[in-house]
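pinned: reference chain
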Amino acid sequence: MSRSISLTLRRGFLGLVFVAIFVPWVASAPLSDQAQITAVLDAQTAAWNRGDLATFMTGYWKSDETVFVGAGGITRGWQAVLERYQKTYPDHKAMGQLNFSDLEVHKFCADGAFVIGQFHLVRESDKFSGVFTLNFRKFPEGWRIVADHTTAFAAPAPK
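pinned: its structure tokens
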């Protein structure tokens, strides 16, 4: 066997050994807190866009201490936040398609973080955007939103 073929085979073998050792280690490495928080928001977006409020709400801490703050005032308690969403967005058509942008995750202690960003909601009849601050807390079951302050941008003035 020529020297170049032998060298190529050895490199290929070493590459396979590297992949066999390294890939399972990376795949089993736990997600960073930032990645876990982002995963919560990704799951919420996917649930919202399916019209699935029940799954969307799993991103919130299921507690009477959960708080939502918006233009309509302060809503206290997980159940009340769910009911607010159900009233405001009674069906999939009213929910439209949601996406988030400009996300910034700021972890300030081992079990606390906040996220600021923008939301964009597109429906058949309209579209609007706004900003939010989400306070997250890490629980045994994972990161959950404990306080949500969401504000829509003012509608543009008619021309």
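why pinned: Residues 1-30 form one domain. Strands lie at 67-70, 73-76, 97-109, 112-122, 127-139, 142-152.
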